[in-house]
Amino acid sequence: MSKGGQVAADAIRDMLLGLADAMQDAQGTLSEAARTSDAGHGYEIPYLDFVFEVEFSEETEASQPTRLRLLPKARRQADEAGRETRVTSSISGRLATVPAHGGRPETLLDLSLSAVEGRASRQRLDIQVSSMAGERLGGVPVSLQVDVEMTERLLGYRPSAQQRLSLLPSQRLTTREDGSAHLAVELSSLRGRQVVVQVESRGAIGRLLLPGEFS
Questions:
Q1: What is the dihedral of CA 133, 128, 198, 108, to 10 degrees?
Q2: Count of Cβ atoms closer than 10 Å to residue 66 Cβ
Q3: How far apart are CA 47 and CA 148, in angstroms?
Q4: Is the pLDDT of residue 128 over 90?
Q5: How far apart are alpha carbons 27 and 42 in whole angstroms?
Q6: Do the Cβ atoms of 212 and 192 come closer than 8 Å?
Q7: How far is CA 211 from CA 32, 34, 110, 155, 178, in A?
Q8: Assign residue 144 a region: left if phi > 0, alpha if psi is -120 to 50, beta otherwise?
Q9: Confidence at 79, pLDDT banded by 50, 70, 90
Q10: What is the pLDDT of residues 177-203, one digit of tens each?
């Protein structure tokens, strides 16, 4: 993208983000009014149409670098030194609100540990993915990682890269038809220390504290 195109894209992005923030603030005000009013009636903003009249200008002056901007600006007088190129455009569109999670019921994660027979240093991480509607979600991707920041905050140390790789042989699973997924974790790599593991699926995040000691 050219320098001028990048300037225009950044300015338009900032305008759209500002408009979206204002719409969110307005919806929050309406929701708060519904909670505090006697009638208890709430209102939602389904969409907002907008039109931006923008002008992109490229200005060149003697002994000065070329300036690129996307701002309203008074026209130059004919006798002023320099050169200016202007492009005027109209940008229109619609901001529409959508339900959280695309209208789907919220995702729930159930995490637990179970022993692996014959392997004292290994345990199985059991994951169950379902929805608030009680549906078990099969064929859903699940990502896992050692939560380094949370481990350091709770336990006072940062697991090494080698420990993280040895602990989780896979960082991505897919649930079975019944919504379950399983992963065997090797606790011996922790050398007696605990660690926090983060599991994420369809926007839901769960954390589990893995024991450093095993019997």
A1: 10
A2: 12
A3: 41
A4: yes
A5: 10
A6: yes
A7: 44, 47, 18, 12, 27
A8: beta
A9: very low
A10: 999 999 988 888 777 788 999 999 988
Q: What is the DSSP string of the chain?
A: --HHHHHHHHHHHHHHHHHHHHHHHHHHHHHHHHHHSSS-------EEEEEEEEEEEEEE-TTS--EEEES--PPPPTTSSSEEEEEEEEEEEEEE---GGGGPPPEEEEEEEEEETTEEEEEEEEEEEEETTS-B--S-EEEEEE-HHHHHHHHS----HHHHHHH-S-SEEE--TTSEEEEEEEGGGGTT--EEEEEEETTEEEEEEE-S---
The pTM of the full predicted model, rounded to 2 decimals, is 0.54
Tell me which residue of 104, 98, 198 sits closest to 144, measured CA to CA. Answer: 198
